[in-house]
Every structure is written in C-alpha cells, then in structure tokens.
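Late entry, evening session. Most of the bench is empty. Finally got around to the prediction I had been postponing all week. Sequence below, unchanged from the version circulated by S.P.
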Amino acid sequence: MFGLGCTKSSLGSLGKFSNQIAITTHQRVPMKSTVGTFERLVRRLWGLPTGRGFYAEHPSKPNARRVPGYLENVNGTTTLLQKDSWRDVEDATRERYKVNAQPPPSSKAGPREYERRTAHDFHVHSKENIINTTSGGGAYEGVDDCLRSVSLAEDVWHLLTVDMSLTGLLTLEIVLEFTFMFLSSVVLCLIATCEGDTLDSEMMNQKLLLSLTTVRISSDSIYGWQTRTPSTKPEIAMLALLGWAHWLLLSVAGAVIVARALKPLQQVAFAPDCVYDDEALSIRMMILRRHMILYDLQVRIQAFSGGLIIDLPLSNGTTGYARWTGVFPLTMKHNLDENSPITKKGMDSITNIAITVTAIDSDGKPVYAVAEYYNPRGWIAGRPEFQGWFKKKACYPRILRGKFGDQFRFFRVPNDSGLAHPSMPGAEQDAKAKDEPVTAPPVFLLDFDNFHVVHNEPELESPV
C-alpha cells in the first residue's frame, strides 16, 4: 500500500503519529538552510515560498506565525517546543542526538551504511550519478567511435538540446556572435581589396563597423547622419548574404531555446535512501510543488541480482495510482512476503534497486522520474571506483534496513495552538481559544525536514 510518511494508506490514530514523530525528532540531525540572501530575495519577488520555521498558529490564519523550534513527544502527543533562534534549537537537541544514537554498526556493514544525512540530497538521483555509477563505469572501444552514430546532425542537435549545460550554451551563442562579426569584417575587407582599395587600419575599422549591420545594428547608429562612400554591388550582395546567415544562426539558436524550454520539468523528488524491514520495501517520493496534481502515475520497481532483472510489484496490486497531489509524500511499497523475489533470494544478493515513475501533470505535460538505490553490502557499492565517484559528495543512495521517519503534526482547528508544549508563549490560552468559532478544517502539517530521515534497525534474525 501507499502511505503518508512511513505510515500505511490510512492515517491511523494521532497517538501513533505522535510516537513515531517523536522518535524521528530525537534521531535526526538538525537541518540547516543553504539558501542565500539573494536567492531568498529573488524567490520572494517571484512569489515563491520563503517561509521558515514551525507553525505556531493554524495555517489558515492570515500571516500565521512560524517560529524556530523542534517537535517533542509529550504524553504520547507530538508537540512543538519553541525557541528564540535556530542556534538555540541546535543547543537544545545536541545532547538528545548523542543519547539516542543509531544502532551500533554491524561487522557486515558496507561502505557508509550508517552515515547520517544532514540534507535531502535530491541530487544523488541525478542523471550524471546514475550514468557514472552504472553504464558509465565502462567505455566503448574499437576501430572508430564515430561509427556509433546514425547522423552527425542528430548528434549535434542532441548535444545542443540535451547534453550541453545552459552556461555552455549561452557562452557558445556569445562566441558565435562575435566570431560572426569578425569574419564578416574580414570578408568585407577582402572584397574591398579586390576592388582596388588599400588595406589599412582605417579600412579594417570601417569594415568592422559595417559588419555590425549584419547583426541587425543599423548603419545610422554606427556612422550617424553623415556622408560615406556607398557600398559597391559585391559588398551589398555580401552584406545581404551575411544578414541572411545571421538570421539563420538566430533561428537555430531560438529553436534550441524552445526545445530546451519544452523539456519536462522535474516535478517529483525521491528520498535519497530507501528502506526495508521484515514486512515491506519502501520508497518515498514527493511532489515538489504543492499545487501540482499528477494524473495516471505509472510505477515500476526492479531489483538487480547477479545479472538478473527482477520485477517487484507494488503491494496494492496495481501498477500505479490514478492521481496524486502535492500535499502529501507518496511511499510506494513492495511486500516482502513468501512470494517476493527478494525474500526468496535474500537482500544480501540484491545489488541495486531501480524505480521509474511516469505521469501527466495538471498542465498536460509529461513527467518522468527515476531513482536507483544500492545495497551497501553489494559488490557494486563496494567497488573502489564507485566509492571514488561519491568520495567528496553526499552519500550514495542506499538500501537501508529500517523505517522512514514520520513527518506529520496535527492541527485540529484554527482555535488550536497546534498541540503546543505548555512552555510555549501563549499556550496557556489554548483552552480559552477553543471556545472561538471554527473557521477552517483540521490540517496535517508536514515536517519537510524529516523527508530524508531513516531510522536504522539493529541486526536481527530476519527472513529478508
């Protein structure tokens, strides 16, 4: 079944949520914002989300107050402990993290298996990482690499529209523009020389200025309203030809920009690690933009073992979901029962697990997403070239034994202070506030800081 956080399809009781969230809070490393002042300003100007902190008031209220703090389990209920600053949050939770440490690493533990993540690390599923840790581990050889092509034009077009970075593409356009103007001035100088003019610095200067007309800069802007030697017929013909060539260059550049603009945007992100226990394999995914809806999600999960590719069906018996909104994360599960290929083979024989998701977003555009997770005790993750690729990067995407951290806190009604801890300012007014008229429905708040958190389980006798 699918779930919210690490829960199953139903939300269950609030107490169950609360107990799990408290464990999450104790075991995760505090997140730190990496967004700079300039980026935050740009996001604010464009109306993108820039809020910080936990809600101390119901989100339906105008300008609902958000504060630094952390979640705590008090009498089986998830509550918010407010602090004056994020530095105070770090100080208040530092000792708690030391006491509630992860299970001791097993003697069979693979490379970086018990390393804690300090960020969401969405980029670990990038195309570059997948290529360089799978097929990118090899190289072609033979008589001529150029033979591995069906068309030079297609290869160049693919390079411009897919492979080349945006910075590289803009740099190429600028270089081509200046190169075109320079070569145009050289051609005009050659024509003038052939007609008997003397080649000197003055002529080169005039022809360079004249070449600017080929890039849509008018001659009046260059020379001003003054008399000058009229262009000869060969020069006029060449200017017309160069103008057409520049128009063709701009048309191709515009087509490349349009092709890149029409590429599907990344609408979803996978958690950097997947988890399993005796019951199920779980892979967590979220929609990046809250107001986006995905239709007809098709999901395929496959495991790789000794050259074999094994399909892992979803536990709900379908191949996907009719629709999913951007409010809650989606946890896709594969049951590890007696019929599961993983149970039959054992998790130690699995080297990596891949998942693909295809869908249509609410604007009718295609959505494609892929993630690949590696068994820390598998031979792929143990190879030196694999570890070398991730040596100075975030930890590679892992298959971990454990559970995902829950992400939810419950606001009953706008009159509720969000199950605030009694020590929070204003919390003592909560009872009185409940007598106010209800103006909005209950709401679950998603602790996004917990999206990547995994609670490792100690080594136990297990059929998986």
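Two things to note before I forget:
The first strand starts at residue 54 and ends at 55.
Confidence is low (pLDDT under 50) at residues 1-28.
Will write this up properly tomorrow.
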